[in-house]
Structures are given as C-alpha cells and as structure tokens.
Design goal:
alpha/beta
Amino acid sequence: MEKSIELVNVSAGYLSETILTDINFSVKKRNIVGVFGPNGAGKTTLLCAINGLARIWKGKIYINGISLSPFTSVSLRKKIGYVPQIIEVDTKIPALTEEVILMGGYGRIGVFHFPNKKDYNFLKELAELLEISSLLKKPFGQLSGGEQRRTLIARALFQKPEILLLDEIFSFLDWKIKKKISELIIRVHNEKNLTTLIVSHDLKVIEELCDNVVYIEKGKIIYYGEKEEFLRRINSGDF
C-alpha cells in the first residue's frame, strides 16, 4: 500500500532545541496510527514536524511522496488537517461556531475570498457528520469541551485534507464524550478515506481506535508496529 507519511532520519525541534532525534517510520494511506509516550516525549513535536510547524535539523519528511521543504510546505499543509490540544478560550470572544469551521478553508479558498454555496453545503455536511448542526450559530467560547473538540475537527476537515492529525483531543473529557468522539473519528476516517495520527496518553484510545502504534520516549522511537504487539509488550512491562 502507498505511503502517506514517511520520516527518514529526522531530527526536529524549535529554535535551537532538538526534541526528536533520528526518527524513522512511515504510515500507509488510510491507516490510523496512535502516538503514545510519557509527557515531554516529543509526541506533539512529531505532529508539528509532519505539519511543517517544527524546525527540521536533519533528515527528510515526505507527504504523499513529496519532500517537505520551505518550497513545498504551504501546498503540503493544505493536505493536512491539524487539531491541536485545546487551549483556553475566552468566553467573551464573539466568533460563532460556523465561523471557526470556515477558518479551516482559508488555505483552500483563500483568506480574501468569501465561501460560496458549495462551501456552505460542505460545512453543513460536516456539522451533521459531527453532530454539531445546532451549535453553528452559538459563540465558540461558550461551547463545552467536547463540543469545541468536534468543532475543531470540523474545521480541520473543512480544509478537505488527506491526513488528519489529532493531538490529545480526549483530555479532560468524561467517558461518555470520549466514546462519542471516538465513534465519530472512526466514521469520519472511513467516510473521508483519511490517514489519521492520534496523539494520546490513554491506552484505551490506542486500543479502540488505532491500527499501529508509535511509542516515543525522550525524543526517540522505542517501538513502531502493530497495536496488538504493542499492548502485549507494554502490559507485560517490556517498556
């Protein structure tokens, strides 16, 4: 199967700091890969490197066979939907939920172009898929944590990506909301034929959603392979 993402001897970080060292792995198209590891291991930096948001000190990153570089990063990032960890949102910010979703289309339709009827129909399709149709006219800052996460997933999908990067989107949610969002991610992944990377510190998320697992410690890959073998080894104390 064709590779969607490939990292070859990649060392990456920010400013003068190196966080990832000699990273090598590839992700096949339409796979769901879990990124697991302790706090500070470099999980978020890995997603940022793939999305062209981290500094690559050494090595190569390929997206659909095209090398990520200063010359290709803008066009390649249009193929990637990124949902970062939730940040604190000021409840006084007036941006509506539908406006937050439309922001995801800036790279595709342009900052100075207005969405057309086709764009609004697609927005409605995503809202129905993620079960947030009733929230579109509500201020984003007044939504619950689970509603904000679903909105940000919709924003990422509005870009019409081929790759979806999800960073700790289940943090601080109760189990009912986790289950609902997990089911939605599987549905979206399958319906949109995505390649999906999920950063999570929750083994339950890895077990339920992922095909393969990248296990990172101190900026290095300790394991990359099938989920079942990873779970067997971590549960037996091999890591």
